[in-house]
Every structure is written in C-alpha cells, then in structure tokens.
Amino acid sequence: MGKVIVIVGGQWGDEGKGKIVDFLTEKADVTARYNGGNNAGHTVIVGNEKYKFHLIPSGIVHQGKLNIIGNGTVIDPAVLVEEIENLEKRGFNVSDKNLVISANAHIILPEYVQEDKRTGGKVGTTGRGIGPAYTYKAARVGVRMCDYITKEAKEAKKLKPLVKNTWIMINDAINNGKNILLEGAQGSLLDIDHGTYPYVTSSNSVAGGACTGLGIGPTKISNVIGVYKAYITRVGGGLFPTELGTEEKTNNEESLDKLRKELGEEGFKHLYKKIILKANEDDEYSQGRLLRVQGVEYGTTTGRARRTGWFDAVAARYAIAINGLSSVAITKLDVLTSLKKIKICTAYSYQGKTLTDFPTNINILKNCRPVYEEMPGWSEDLSKIGGYDDLPENAKSYLERIEKLIGVPVSILSVGPKRNQTMVLREEELF
Ligand code: IMP
Ligand code: MG
Predict the structure, then answer these.
(1) Among 183, 213, 280, 359, which residue has the fewest nearby CB atoms (within 10 Å)?
(2) Terminal Cα distance for the chain, rounded
C-alpha cells in the first residue's frame, strides 16, 4: 500500500520545504502542488546542479515521476512556460508523462500583476498577481486553464498537451497504491483562513488545502509533515512576535551579494566577525542579522532580506493543530552555530496574562510579548555532521526541547542545503 504524505510549511513560508520535498520525492511516484502560484519559490540542489522553481514541483528533476500542478493553484502561463523551457535547455524532456496541469486551475492574466502591484503594497505581496487571480476565481469571473488553452497565444499552445483532468490521475494513483507527495506553498501562518490576516496570501496553504486543491478526500491522507526552521523568518509585512531587530531596519539592509561586492572579501569577513561579536553581546538586531547572513535569508522569488527571529513554539503548536501534523522536519539547525545563547519562545505575555494558544486576532497578537527560555548554544560547524549522535550535546538538547514544547516528533533534521545533509530520525513517518 502506498502512502499519501502532505508537506506543509509550519511558519511564514521559506522553511526549506523544497529541500524536504526533494528528499522525499526519491521514494514518491507522484508529487503534486495544491495551492499558490509563482509567489512561491524554491531552490533544489542535486549534486552540483542548482534548480529554481516557482510552479513546477521539484519531483521533475527525478526520472520517471509524475508531477501535478493542481486545481487549487493559480498559474501565470508565461512563467510556467519559461520554467519548462529552462528545464528543456538543461536536457530534461517535459511531457504529459512527467508534468500535468489541472484543467480547472486559474490563470494569472498580465493585468492582475499590474493590479497586485498597485494594491498589494500594505501586505507586502510578491506582486505576482496572486491575490487578484484568487479574487476573480471567487467572484466567478476568472479564466481557467481549460479555457485558456483554446486561445492562440504561444504559451497556450505550449501548455495545451499538459492540461488534464488531474483529479482522475491522482485518485487513480492513490487507488493503485502509489506513494504520493502533496506539496503546499507558503506557510501555515500565511494561510488565508488561519494566518495572520490580512497579512496573508490568498490561498489555503494548510494541509486541508491539499484536498480541495487537488480533488482528493481527507480519508486518503496518511501523514502530514510540517517543515520548520530551527528559528523563524517572515518576508513582507505583518506581525512577528519573536522578531529580532525591526522590520524597517531589515528592509533597509543591503542584499548579501551587494554587501560582498561593496566590502570585498576581507571587509565582509570583518563585518561578519563584528556581527557575531555583537550578537553574543545580546544585541538583538545583530542576532537577527547573524541568522540572515548565515542562513542566506534573502528571498528566492523577490531577493528581499527576510525578517528573522527566535523559534516560536506558540505559533508552532498552532500550526500543528490546524494541520493535524504527525511529525515535523526541522531545517537549518546549522544556522544557529556561533550563538552562545539561543532563545525559544514558549508563551506570550498579554496584558499581564500568559497565553499559550496563538491568538488569531491581530489586535491581541499586536500586544503580545514573547516569553523566552534560554538555552546554551554551540560553536561547532554542523554542516558536515553525519548522524544525530554526532551533534553537539547543546544542539541535541535544543532539538529535544523543541520536540517537548510542540508535542510531536521530529522525523527529519536538516543541517545544510544538500541531500546528504539530511537525517531521518523517524522512518515510520515517511514513505
Ligand atoms: P502574495 O502571496 O504575493 O499575495 O503575498 C502575500 C504575503 O505572503 C506577503 O507578505 C508575501 O511576502 C508572503 N508570501 C507569499 N509567498 C511567499 C513564500 O513563498 N514565502 C514567504 N512568504 C510568501
Ligand atoms: Mg520559498
């Protein structure tokens, strides 16, 4: 019997889902995207090759797998065609044997992108027309893939052979005992219903979205894995209780590439040393900046510097509940290296009261202050660690503390972007 596993982001996106999905795809027969559009972006590294995807599931880089872009997604045809052509240029053959698109998925028209750029400022949208596409879908005036491919446009002709009734294909695959990986874009705290509204995206990124976004029933799902960074980040506007430094200061920061260019290698090394020093003198902005620099926290889609903060167990537990997570994958543990002390937010303090449940009312969340627990850090480079037992004791204690605070097991641990920097801790949660 095959398994149907959903992968969701447990935070505000960019948790490293792409890497976890890619790791699990080796044993999956089908990989499917169920929400969002080219607001998402992930980088997959296979050997020395780097691939960037916004729409196509990362299973495409493996031979003989079927990849589905579900009805719950919104598709910018030009972007999808470009992704396909880039793959073709690199020697991949893309056909309906390895990539299919739901006939019911909605299209992002060029004017939606313009509209998003005009109106999405407050939320800090990626400006890709995602919000307008879902708006027109709900208003029942949208354009679906099945209609779009009847048009004369070059993109329409290119996509036509890939457009299918994907609900049949995915249900057949489930009934035939295949292993199926369902990939959510963005994170749970950006979900249109459950996120920090209005600072959210326009689709259901939570596990429930996998059912509506692909046309399968909830009884078919075997496991749900939430991906979390060992700390937390957010891009765009919105509340962020454990933020280190301020949104304004982060937004005004130069990109890593620009810094390197401006300062030169020596100058950059000097700055890096200074950031570590100040971070360990309890300067919050420098702690956040250290995470940003060590974690390369700059968007794949927009290049924006990401806001960074300490692991938030209150928000993590909320994501566990709304997704029904059976286990979590923790990524980027290596990024915490060099911090003498690491904090975990265990509760919020609100008007003299202690809250342990995440408040979804932003007027309450706005006035919540994190309650922290402090743990000792480590200085060892984790990126070459072979197995869990080789981790520094303090890194193990940190992970065990997170596991205890959130109440579900860690099934996968990642200490770097490469496939061999991934440890399986609970085989039974995976394929
Ligand atoms: P939109 O999805 O482009 O409308 O953007 C809405 C909000 O979600 C903004 O704050 C974006 O920064 C955020 N967002 C959208 N996609 C992603 C993602 O893949 N990772 C992180 N944040 C995202
Ligand atoms: Mg991303």
Answers:
(1) 280
(2) 10
The tokens of 193 are what? 């219903």
Atom 11 of ligand 1, residue of closest alpha carbon:
125
Nearest-angstrom CA–CA distance, 235 and 239: 11
Model pLDDT for residues 140-166, shown as the tens digit of each residue = 999 999 999 999 999 999 999 999 999
- Global confidence as pTM: 0.96
- Cβ of 233 closer than 6 Å to ligand 1, yes or no, is no
- Cα(387) to centroid(ligand 1), Å: 34
Ligand 2 is a single-atom ion; what residues have CB below 5 A from it? 14, 41
**Ligand 1 proximity of 210 Cβ (cutoff 6 Å):** no
Reply yes or no on whether 62 is catalytic. no
Say how far apart CA 319 and CA 317 lie, in whole Å: 5
Distance 125 CA to ligand 1 centre (A): 6
Integer Cα distance of 123 and 121 in angstroms: 5
CATH of 4-228, one of 3.40.50.170, 3.40.50.1980, 3.40.440.10, 3.40.50.720: 3.40.440.10
How many angstroms is it from 1 CA to the middle of ligand 2? Answer: 32
Question: What pLDDT digit, counting tens, does each position of 159-179 carry?
Answer: 999 999 999 999 999 999 999
